[in-house]
Amino acid sequence: DIGDIVRGRDLYLGDDKKDKEQKKKLQDNLKEIFNMIQKNNESILGGLSLDQVREYWWEENREKVWEAITCDAKGFNYFRPTCGSSGETPHVTPSQCRCINFSVPTYFDYVPQYLR
């Protein structure tokens, strides 16, 4: 899951040495990126650990990431009804795997990976 990768919580270690090397390279690149984000936003993020910066960034950008992933998924629905306000019966996504209000149709990214 992209959220686990961004937040540094991906449990998948890789099938072989090449996978593990690629994962390490990706995580090293992400650490560098998030260090730059923290440095460029010192007033907001300066007192946070790198893990907290990653969590903060994901919370602020998860809807935009989902939109970017699904922008060309016209006519597709998320696999189960998840859209709707609190107390409302959930309904399916009308198109592009997005709810009518453009929110992300799932919160699985907040469920620990080993429970999904």
Question: How would you sum up this structure, described in words?
Answer:
The longest helix is centred in the N-terminal third of the chain and has 24 residues, at 17-40. The protein has 116 residues and is mainly alpha-helical. The chain is 47% helix and 0% strand. The chain is built from 4 helices and no strands. The protein folds into 2 domains: 1-71, no CATH class; 73-106, no CATH class. It starts with a helix and ends in a 46-residue tail after the last helix. It has helices at 2-6, 17-40, 42-45, 50-70.
Strand and helix layout:
Elements: H1 2-6, H2 17-40, H3 42-45, H4 50-70
Percent helix: 40-55%
The overall number of domains is 2
Weakly predicted, low-confidence segments: none
Oligomer: single chain
**How many strand units?**
0
Overall spatial form? globular
**N-C termini distance:** 10 Å
Radius of gyration: 17 Å
The main sheet comes to: none
Share of β-strand residues: under 5%
Number of helices: 4
Q: Structural class of the helix and strand makeup?
A: mainly alpha
Name the average pLDDT.
Answer: 78
- The SSE string, one letter per element, is HHHH
